[in-house]
Specification:
Layout: H1 3-6, E1 26-35, E2 38-48, E3 51-56, H2 63-70, E4 78-83, H3 92-95, E5 98-101, H4 113-123, H5 129-139, H6 155-167, E6 173-177, H7 185-200, E7 204-209, H8 212-218, E8 221-226, E9 229-235, H9 236-244, E10 248-254, H10 257-267, E11 272-276, E12 280-285, H11 288-301, E13 306-311, H12 316-325
Parallel strand pairs: 3-7, 3-8, 5-6, 6-7
Antiparallel strand pairs: 1-2, 1-4, 8-9, 10-12, 10-13, 11-12
Helix pairs in contact: 4-5, 4-6, 5-6, 10-11
């Protein structure tokens, strides 16, 4: 590791005209985690700096396990995770610079929202826990004077109160596990705006999600996990292009399946097809955009009625399987 990467001063005589890139705030190096025979995370490496980073993947991809290792709640079976240059499992001080909102609904239901967030502030030794709790609760657009117990909170309110306790101590690294689940569209928009505001303040905000449209709205760097592995990383637009370029299988129900299949082959928008029962033709295309533009004109030219058009492998699982294979 270079001296700059390790956060050490440059050697004597080194040029200071160029400002060195800041060290990563979170770094994973060849990290694996297994539970008995189950491999949850397999040989994952990445570096994350300030701003919003999305951790995208289907359920069971290893996202939650990865976040738990970042926050010092789980020990890697192999490899290393560092936060702000420190091991979160060994350095207690760095834990005070991390905030986490877990996916699990394990709240202290007998407390009010304010009591819950105040407790988090006290555990982090915040100087004025009452005022800090009020500010954090207002930040997530809840009422700090609401006397109701957490047991009465809706799903959306529980998500927001978990976020409040995650930011009450003003951490530098914020890990949020599926934080938008249960929020209505307006609340989702406002929470995404809050994530970006925190990132613009120099904080490292890591948001996990299995919903592609959510991550697209983050407009941020993306880490894609599938089957415990890091399948892709980079700007969302680059990841989206990879997803859109994958081969796609589509089922078409029409009253003229043979004629329509031949017309699509002639137009060069499908690479293969097969006829099935009930007037179905199943086609393979490597250019979904061109196929969508061509299918209606092709049907019109053949006097064929399009009765149903259904992607057979357009779910997130198939997307991630494709990325893992690249």
């Amino acid at each position: 590791m270079s001296q700059v990467q390790a956060g050490l001063p440059p050697p004597p005589g080194a040029s200071s005209s160029k400002q060195a890139a800041p060290p990563p705030m979170v770094q994973a190096t060849s990290v694996s985690k297994w539970f008995g025979d189950l491999v949850a995370v397999s040989d994952v490496s990445f570096s994350i700096g300030a701003g919003v980073t999305a951790l995208l993947g289907p359920n069971g991809a290893g996202k939650s396990t990865m976040l738990r290792m970042m926050c010092g709640l789980a020990k890697p079976s192999n490899g290393a995770v560092t936060v702000l240059g420190q091991n979160p499992r060994a350095d207690v001080a760095v834990l005070g610079r991390i905030g986490m909102a877990p996916q699990q609904e394990s709240l202290l239901d007998y407390l009010s929202g304010r009591e819950f967030v105040e407790l988090a502030a006290q555990l982090h030794h915040v100087g004025n826990p009452i005022e800090a709790a009020r500010q954090a609760i207002q930040t997530v657009e809840l009422d700090p004077d609401d006397p109701r117990k957490l047991s009465t909170y809706s799903k959306g309110m529980r998500q927001r109160i978990k976020l409040a306790q995650a930011i009450v101590h003003d951490p530098l690294v914020i890990a949020l596990d599926e934080p938008l689940t249960g929020l209505d569209p307006r609340q989702r928009r406002e929470m995404i705006q809050l994530f970006h505001r925190l990132g613009s303040e120099g904080k490292c905000v890591i948001v996990s999600s299995h919903v592609l449209d959510e991550v697209e709205r983050f407009g941020s760097r993306v880490l894609v996990m599938a089957q415990g592995r890091l399948a892709a990383e980079g700007d969302f637009r680059e990841i989206r292009n990879l997803m859109d370029d994958r081969p796609l299988r589509i089922s078409i129900r029409t009253d003229e399946p043979r004629a329509l299949a031949i017309a699509l082959l002639d137009r060069g928008v499908i690479s293969g097809c097969r006829l099935e029962a009930n007037n179905l033709v199943v086609v393979d295309t490597s250019d979904p955009t061109a196929f969508r533009r061509a299918v209606a004109p092709a049907a019109r030219d053949q006097n064929a009625s399009l009765l149903e058009l259904r992607p057979l492998d357009d779910d997130l699982e198939s997307v991630f399987r494709y990325l893992v294979g690249q």
